[in-house]
TrEMBL record:
<dbReference type="GO" id="GO:0008610">
    <property type="term" value="P:lipid biosynthetic process"/>
</dbReference>
<dbReference type="InterPro" id="IPR001031">
    <property type="entry name" value="Thioesterase"/>
</dbReference>
<dbReference type="InterPro" id="IPR020802">
    <property type="entry name" value="TesA-like"/>
</dbReference>
<protein>
    <submittedName>
        <fullName>NRPS (Te)</fullName>
    </submittedName>
</protein>
<keyword id="KW-0378">Hydrolase</keyword>
<dbReference type="Pfam" id="PF00975">
    <property type="entry name" value="Thioesterase"/>
</dbReference>
<dbReference type="InterPro" id="IPR012223">
    <property type="entry name" value="TEII"/>
</dbReference>
<dbReference type="InterPro" id="IPR029058">
    <property type="entry name" value="AB_hydrolase_fold"/>
</dbReference>
<dbReference type="GO" id="GO:0016787">
    <property type="term" value="F:hydrolase activity"/>
</dbReference>
<comment type="similarity">
    <text>Belongs to the thioesterase family.</text>
</comment>
<feature type="domain" description="Thioesterase TesA-like">
    <location>
        <begin position="24"/>
        <end position="247"/>
    </location>
</feature>
Amino acid sequence: MSPNTTQRWLRRFHPCPDAPVQLLCLPHAGGSASFYFPFSQALAGSAEALCVQYPGRQERHDEPGVTELHTLADRITEAVAEGADDRPLALFGHSMGAMLAFEVAGRLEDAGTTVAWLFVSGRRAPSRRRPPRNAHGFTDEQLVAELAALDGTDAELLGDPDLLRMVLPAIRSDFEAVETYRYRPRPPLRCPVVALVGDRDPRVDLVEAAAWADHTARSFDLRVFPGGHFYLSDQQAAVVDSVRRHLTASTLLGAG
Protein backbone atom coordinates (compact mmCIF):
# COMPACT_ATOMS: atom_id res chain seq x y z
CA MET A 1 0.00 0.00 0.00
CA SER A 2 1.57 3.27 -1.12
CA PRO A 3 1.81 6.39 1.09
CA ASN A 4 -0.80 8.08 -1.13
CA THR A 5 -3.16 5.15 -0.58
CA THR A 6 -2.57 5.33 3.17
CA GLN A 7 -3.36 9.05 3.12
CA ARG A 8 -6.69 8.28 1.46
CA TRP A 9 -7.63 6.03 4.38
CA LEU A 10 -6.37 8.03 7.37
CA ARG A 11 -7.03 11.68 8.27
CA ARG A 12 -4.99 13.61 10.84
CA PHE A 13 -7.14 16.66 11.50
CA HIS A 14 -5.00 17.77 14.46
CA PRO A 15 -1.47 16.37 14.09
CA CYS A 16 0.04 15.79 17.53
CA PRO A 17 3.44 14.12 17.11
CA ASP A 18 4.14 14.64 20.82
CA ALA A 19 0.91 13.04 22.01
CA PRO A 20 1.67 9.83 23.94
CA VAL A 21 -0.80 7.66 22.02
CA GLN A 22 -2.52 7.41 18.66
CA LEU A 23 -6.26 6.75 18.52
CA LEU A 24 -7.72 5.16 15.39
CA CYS A 25 -11.31 6.40 14.98
CA LEU A 26 -13.72 4.39 12.81
CA PRO A 27 -17.05 5.94 11.74
CA HIS A 28 -20.54 4.46 11.68
CA ALA A 29 -22.33 3.22 8.55
CA GLY A 30 -22.68 6.14 6.18
CA GLY A 31 -20.27 8.19 8.25
CA SER A 32 -17.05 9.86 7.19
CA ALA A 33 -13.77 10.75 8.86
CA SER A 34 -15.02 14.30 9.51
CA PHE A 35 -17.55 12.91 12.01
CA TYR A 36 -14.60 12.66 14.39
CA PHE A 37 -13.24 16.18 13.76
CA PRO A 38 -14.56 17.59 17.08
CA PHE A 39 -13.49 14.41 18.83
CA SER A 40 -9.98 14.79 17.43
CA GLN A 41 -9.89 18.45 18.43
CA ALA A 42 -11.01 17.74 21.99
CA LEU A 43 -8.42 14.98 22.45
CA ALA A 44 -5.53 16.90 20.89
CA GLY A 45 -2.55 16.75 23.20
CA SER A 46 -3.80 13.63 24.96
CA ALA A 47 -3.95 11.58 21.76
CA GLU A 48 -3.41 12.01 18.05
CA ALA A 49 -6.56 10.90 16.26
CA LEU A 50 -6.24 8.93 13.03
CA CYS A 51 -9.70 9.17 11.50
CA VAL A 52 -10.60 6.54 8.92
CA GLN A 53 -12.12 7.63 5.62
CA TYR A 54 -14.06 4.81 3.99
CA PRO A 55 -14.37 4.65 0.18
CA GLY A 56 -17.44 6.16 -1.46
CA ARG A 57 -17.75 9.45 0.45
CA GLN A 58 -16.46 13.01 0.40
CA GLU A 59 -13.18 13.16 -1.57
CA ARG A 60 -13.40 9.37 -2.10
CA HIS A 61 -16.90 9.56 -3.58
CA ASP A 62 -15.73 8.20 -6.92
CA GLU A 63 -14.54 4.94 -5.31
CA PRO A 64 -17.00 2.06 -4.89
CA GLY A 65 -18.02 1.21 -1.35
CA VAL A 66 -16.84 -2.03 0.22
CA THR A 67 -19.79 -4.34 0.92
CA GLU A 68 -17.94 -6.99 2.94
CA LEU A 69 -16.87 -6.03 6.44
CA HIS A 70 -13.97 -8.47 6.72
CA THR A 71 -12.54 -7.11 3.44
CA LEU A 72 -12.92 -3.56 4.75
CA ALA A 73 -11.14 -4.55 7.97
CA ASP A 74 -8.28 -6.04 5.93
CA ARG A 75 -7.79 -2.82 3.99
CA ILE A 76 -7.95 -0.61 7.08
CA THR A 77 -5.43 -2.84 8.85
CA GLU A 78 -3.03 -2.44 5.92
CA ALA A 79 -3.42 1.35 6.05
CA VAL A 80 -2.82 1.41 9.80
CA ALA A 81 0.27 -0.79 9.50
CA GLU A 82 1.68 1.75 7.02
CA GLY A 83 0.40 4.96 8.61
CA ALA A 84 0.80 4.51 12.36
CA ASP A 85 4.11 5.02 14.17
CA ASP A 86 5.73 3.34 17.16
CA ARG A 87 3.50 5.04 19.75
CA PRO A 88 0.86 2.99 21.57
CA LEU A 89 -2.24 2.54 19.42
CA ALA A 90 -5.83 2.49 20.66
CA LEU A 91 -9.01 2.09 18.60
CA PHE A 92 -12.42 3.76 18.89
CA GLY A 93 -15.35 2.73 16.71
CA HIS A 94 -19.02 3.66 16.73
CA SER A 95 -21.76 1.31 15.45
CA MET A 96 -20.36 -0.30 12.28
CA GLY A 97 -17.06 1.27 13.28
CA ALA A 98 -17.13 -0.73 16.53
CA MET A 99 -17.26 -4.00 14.61
CA LEU A 100 -14.47 -2.81 12.35
CA ALA A 101 -12.40 -1.68 15.34
CA PHE A 102 -12.79 -5.14 16.87
CA GLU A 103 -11.78 -6.88 13.63
CA VAL A 104 -8.84 -4.53 13.02
CA ALA A 105 -7.66 -4.93 16.63
CA GLY A 106 -7.65 -8.70 16.19
CA ARG A 107 -5.71 -8.49 12.95
CA LEU A 108 -3.16 -6.14 14.49
CA GLU A 109 -2.66 -8.39 17.50
CA ASP A 110 -2.33 -11.45 15.27
CA ALA A 111 0.42 -9.60 13.38
CA GLY A 112 2.29 -8.85 16.60
CA THR A 113 1.14 -5.26 17.16
CA THR A 114 0.17 -4.36 20.73
CA VAL A 115 -3.21 -2.65 20.99
CA ALA A 116 -3.45 -0.40 24.03
CA TRP A 117 -7.25 -0.10 24.29
CA LEU A 118 -10.35 -0.95 22.28
CA PHE A 119 -13.34 1.39 22.65
CA VAL A 120 -16.56 0.02 21.12
CA SER A 121 -19.54 2.37 20.98
CA GLY A 122 -23.17 1.82 20.09
CA ARG A 123 -22.85 -1.81 19.05
CA ARG A 124 -23.62 -5.17 20.57
CA ALA A 125 -20.82 -7.69 21.05
CA PRO A 126 -19.95 -9.61 17.86
CA SER A 127 -21.05 -12.89 19.43
CA ARG A 128 -24.57 -11.47 19.97
CA ARG A 129 -26.80 -11.59 16.90
CA ARG A 130 -30.19 -10.16 16.03
CA PRO A 131 -32.36 -11.06 13.03
CA PRO A 132 -31.01 -9.10 10.03
CA ARG A 133 -33.01 -6.06 8.95
CA ASN A 134 -31.68 -6.15 5.38
CA ALA A 135 -31.94 -2.37 5.19
CA HIS A 136 -29.40 -2.36 2.35
CA GLY A 137 -32.20 -3.76 0.19
CA PHE A 138 -34.66 -1.00 1.11
CA THR A 139 -35.91 1.50 -1.43
CA ASP A 140 -34.27 4.92 -1.24
CA GLU A 141 -37.31 6.27 0.62
CA GLN A 142 -37.21 3.45 3.16
CA LEU A 143 -33.47 3.88 3.63
CA VAL A 144 -33.88 7.60 4.28
CA ALA A 145 -36.58 6.81 6.85
CA GLU A 146 -34.20 4.34 8.52
CA LEU A 147 -31.51 7.02 8.76
CA ALA A 148 -33.96 9.55 10.15
CA ALA A 149 -35.09 7.09 12.84
CA LEU A 150 -31.53 6.69 14.07
CA ASP A 151 -31.20 10.49 14.37
CA GLY A 152 -27.58 10.52 13.28
CA THR A 153 -27.85 12.13 9.85
CA ASP A 154 -28.20 15.85 9.22
CA ALA A 155 -31.85 16.65 8.51
CA GLU A 156 -30.76 19.09 5.79
CA LEU A 157 -29.00 16.27 3.95
CA LEU A 158 -32.01 13.97 4.24
CA GLY A 159 -34.16 16.65 2.64
CA ASP A 160 -31.83 17.37 -0.28
CA PRO A 161 -32.44 14.98 -3.22
CA ASP A 162 -29.19 15.90 -4.97
CA LEU A 163 -27.06 15.24 -1.88
CA LEU A 164 -28.93 12.02 -1.19
CA ARG A 165 -28.15 10.73 -4.67
CA MET A 166 -24.48 11.26 -3.88
CA VAL A 167 -24.40 9.64 -0.43
CA LEU A 168 -26.97 6.83 -0.60
CA PRO A 169 -24.73 4.41 -2.52
CA ALA A 170 -22.08 4.60 0.22
CA ILE A 171 -24.70 4.26 2.93
CA ARG A 172 -26.23 1.26 1.21
CA SER A 173 -22.85 -0.47 0.83
CA ASP A 174 -22.07 0.15 4.51
CA PHE A 175 -25.41 -1.29 5.57
CA GLU A 176 -24.76 -4.36 3.44
CA ALA A 177 -21.33 -4.81 5.08
CA VAL A 178 -22.90 -4.63 8.55
CA GLU A 179 -25.92 -6.79 7.81
CA THR A 180 -23.98 -9.57 6.11
CA TYR A 181 -21.20 -9.60 8.71
CA ARG A 182 -20.61 -12.92 10.41
CA TYR A 183 -18.43 -13.16 13.47
CA ARG A 184 -15.52 -15.57 13.09
CA PRO A 185 -14.81 -16.96 16.56
CA ARG A 186 -11.30 -16.15 17.75
CA PRO A 187 -9.37 -16.09 21.05
CA PRO A 188 -10.16 -13.10 23.28
CA LEU A 189 -8.23 -9.94 22.52
CA ARG A 190 -5.18 -9.18 24.62
CA CYS A 191 -6.16 -5.52 25.07
CA PRO A 192 -8.62 -4.06 27.58
CA VAL A 193 -12.05 -3.21 26.15
CA VAL A 194 -14.40 -0.36 27.00
CA ALA A 195 -17.99 -0.55 25.72
CA LEU A 196 -19.96 2.70 25.51
CA VAL A 197 -23.70 2.84 24.89
CA GLY A 198 -26.69 5.16 25.09
CA ASP A 199 -29.34 4.12 27.60
CA ARG A 200 -32.10 4.45 24.95
CA ASP A 201 -30.28 2.93 21.97
CA PRO A 202 -32.75 0.86 19.92
CA ARG A 203 -29.88 -1.03 18.26
CA VAL A 204 -28.15 -2.38 21.39
CA ASP A 205 -29.30 -3.05 24.94
CA LEU A 206 -27.10 -3.13 28.03
CA VAL A 207 -26.89 -6.94 28.10
CA GLU A 208 -25.68 -7.00 24.50
CA ALA A 209 -23.15 -4.26 25.25
CA ALA A 210 -21.93 -6.01 28.41
CA ALA A 211 -21.23 -9.14 26.35
CA TRP A 212 -18.14 -7.40 24.97
CA ALA A 213 -16.50 -8.63 28.19
CA ASP A 214 -16.38 -12.09 26.61
CA HIS A 215 -14.05 -10.80 23.90
CA THR A 216 -11.10 -9.69 26.00
CA ALA A 217 -8.63 -11.46 28.26
CA ARG A 218 -7.92 -8.14 29.98
CA SER A 219 -10.09 -5.66 31.85
CA PHE A 220 -13.56 -4.62 30.70
CA ASP A 221 -15.55 -1.48 31.44
CA LEU A 222 -19.13 -0.62 30.46
CA ARG A 223 -20.01 3.08 30.24
CA VAL A 224 -23.67 4.07 29.86
CA PHE A 225 -24.64 7.58 28.72
CA PRO A 226 -28.00 9.32 28.33
CA GLY A 227 -29.28 9.14 24.77
CA GLY A 228 -30.02 6.97 21.77
CA HIS A 229 -27.88 5.44 19.06
CA PHE A 230 -25.97 8.68 18.49
CA TYR A 231 -25.68 9.57 22.16
CA LEU A 232 -22.03 10.56 21.62
CA SER A 233 -23.00 13.64 19.60
CA ASP A 234 -24.75 15.14 22.65
CA GLN A 235 -22.43 13.58 25.22
CA GLN A 236 -19.15 14.41 23.51
CA ALA A 237 -17.49 16.02 26.54
CA ALA A 238 -18.32 13.05 28.78
CA VAL A 239 -17.22 10.53 26.14
CA VAL A 240 -13.95 12.37 25.52
CA ASP A 241 -13.31 12.54 29.26
CA SER A 242 -13.89 8.79 29.61
CA VAL A 243 -11.61 7.99 26.67
CA ARG A 244 -8.89 10.33 27.92
CA ARG A 245 -8.94 8.83 31.41
CA HIS A 246 -8.53 5.32 30.02
CA LEU A 247 -5.78 6.37 27.63
CA THR A 248 -3.78 7.92 30.45
CA ALA A 249 -4.24 4.96 32.79
CA SER A 250 -1.15 3.37 34.27
CA THR A 251 -1.38 0.29 32.04
CA LEU A 252 -0.93 2.49 28.97
CA LEU A 253 2.06 4.22 30.51
CA GLY A 254 3.83 0.93 31.05
CA ALA A 255 2.96 0.17 34.65
CA GLY A 256 0.74 -2.74 33.74
